[in-house]
Amino acid sequence: MRSLLVLLGCAVISAYFIHHAIYGKHGFEARTRLIERTAVLSREIRSLKAVHARMRRDVDLLTLEPPSRDMTEEIAQRDLGYVYPSDVVLLAR
Fold first, then answer.
1. CB distance 75 to 58 below 8 Å
2. Do residues 13 and 19 lie in contact, with contact meaning Cβ atoms separated by under 8 Å?
3. Average pLDDT over the chain, rounded to whole?
4. How sure is the predictor about 45, in pLDDT bands with cuts at 50, 70 and 90?
């Protein structure tokens, strides 16, 4: 009888650790969620780095003495929608 209780106790303890290894805070499912989240955040970081590089280029071009006329005109057209009355504007969809 005593060995049966020891065996049952070991089975319960093993089941406890197996459950937490799979579903626990640091288990296999949590690891899978973290890997998926890492992929999403990596894509977002790459996107933000591209935006940062474009903005840095714009700032660098605008801080020249005097500012580049072409760059100023490009930003006014792209961001503000300003164009010369004689300009022909083509919109791509």
1. yes
2. no
3. 89
4. very high
CA distances from 4 to 8, 9, 11, 16, 17 (A): 6, 9, 10, 18, 20
**pTM score, whole prediction:** 0.49
Tokens of 82: 């300003």
Rg, Å, the chain Cα set:
30
- Residue 67 is given by DSSP the state P
50, 57 Cβ separation under 8 angstroms: no
CA torsion sign, 5 to 8 to 12 to 14? positive
Distance separating alpha carbons of residues 59 and 21, to the nearest angstrom: 51
Look at the block and give the residue holding tokens 């209780």. Answer: 5
Q: How many residues does the chain have?
A: 93
